[in-house]
Design goal:
Number of domains: 2
Number of strands: 9
Distance between the termini: 47 Å
Strand content: 25-35%
Mean pLDDT: 91
Number of helices: 2
CATH topology of the largest domain: Nucleoside Triphosphate Pyrophosphohydrolase
CATH superfamily of the largest domain: Nucleoside Triphosphate Pyrophosphohydrolase
Length: 175
């Protein structure tokens, strides 16, 4: 589960919070201004960008997973469209502008304390070609199905297994 820090004081008026039943659950609430704190899940989105049968991956600079590879992505900012977050993160980490072309899947569950509770995977199409790794990635590269590097997360394994399975599926038959 996510690392959720307990709140002791109201972010609105500064009064000490008390536990109160709100929406069928005990939650930190302010006796002075009636603010109720809801511990919301962290959401991240990633871009699954394929070009010429190869998938785009980035090598992580920071732990967890430093030196291992994953899909370009990151946290969705408050008020940000998750599709735009996936495109933004891809640009920040790889230098590629991408068009989000569809929803691939959604994953729930957290792999480490600083990670997301919900991971949204989008398909993307590269609009530019030159890779320029930056932000929290020190390398970006397209990999073929038989040359995947050491991956950082179980979710990356799952997403790429789904990608590989989709590639090997026979084309739909027409009646």
């Amino acid at each position: 589960m996510a690392r959720h820090y307990p709140m002791s004081f109201c972010p609105v008026c500064g009064a000490r919070l008390e536990s109160r039943l709100a929406n069928s659950k005990e939650r930190p609430a302010c006796p002075a201004c009636h603010f109720v704190h809801y511990c919301d899940p962290k959401v991240a989105s990633v871009a699954l960008v394929e070009h010429d049968g190869r998938v785009l991956l980035v090598r992580r600079v920071w732990n967890p997973g430093s030196g291992r590879w994953t899909l370009p992505g990151g946290f969705v900012d408050c008020g940000e469209d998750p599709r735009l977050a996936a495109a933004r993160e891809c640009l920040e980490e790889t230098g590629l502008e991408v068009e989000i072309t569809g929803l691939v899947d959604l994953y729930y569950g957290q792999e480490h304390a600083e990670g997301a509770d919900i991971l949204i995977v989008y398909a993307g199409r590269a609009l530019t070609q030159a890779l320029s790794p930056a932000d929290d990635a020190d390398a970006a590269r397209f990999f073929g199905p038989d040359e995947l590097p050491e991956l950082a997360f179980a979710s990356t394994h799952q997403i790429l297994a789904q990608w590989l399975a989709g590639r090997s599926a026979p084309p739909p038959t027409r009646s």
